[in-house]
Design goal:
Layout (H helix, E strand, L loop, with lengths): L1 H15 L3 E4 L5 E2 L4 E9 L5 E12 L20 E7 L3 E2 L5 E9 L7 E13 L4 E13 L1
Parallel strand pairs: 2-9
Antiparallel strand pairs: 1-3, 3-7, 4-5, 4-8, 6-7, 8-9
This protein binds 2-acetamido-2-deoxy-beta-D-glucopyranose (2 copies).
Amino acid sequence: MKFLFVLSALASLAAAQSVVIQAPAPGTTFAPGQQFVVDVDRPDTITGSQDVSVAIGLLSCVGQAPPGTCDGVNTTEEIGTVLFAGPYTPQLRPGGADLFQNFTVSVPDGFQAGAAALSVAHFTLVGELAMPVLEVITETVFVS
Ligand SMILES: *[C@@H]1O[C@H](CO)[C@@H](O)[C@H](O)[C@H]1NC(C)=O
Ligand SMILES: *[C@@H]1O[C@H](CO)[C@@H](O)[C@H](O)[C@H]1NC(C)=O
């Protein structure tokens, strides 16, 4: 019983550490070679958690999903071309209540035109027990 409680408490704790892609907006169109900022946000929670790293990937959905969509593409299995992989050390947003970090990345030259899944894989250690949590969040963007 107690164990179950601890597990569910950890699960909600883990959910509270979840990141969001603040920018770019879903549906944004980029040209191959174009630079853009991926703004990775998380709430400034009082519960202890230690962010470790993120990986940002871009996966073409062309031929894997109905045209113009990424429906059914599972980015927990692959994030595609890795645009960034390294430490995640978010800072308090000026004038805001959340933590953020901007990553400047570029669409690879010659990237397949069409819908693409932009993913952020986020690795964090949650709570006093340092429970390792890996989450992958994704949005659909377009490459022209
Ligand atoms: C995505 O893939 C993972 C790992 O294979 C699997 O656990 C999960 O159920 C899949 N999700 C969907 C929506 O298919
Ligand atoms: C981070 O990126 C967002 C979205 O592009 C932008 O509004 C903000 O000014 C950037 N912040 C910094 C400090 O570069």
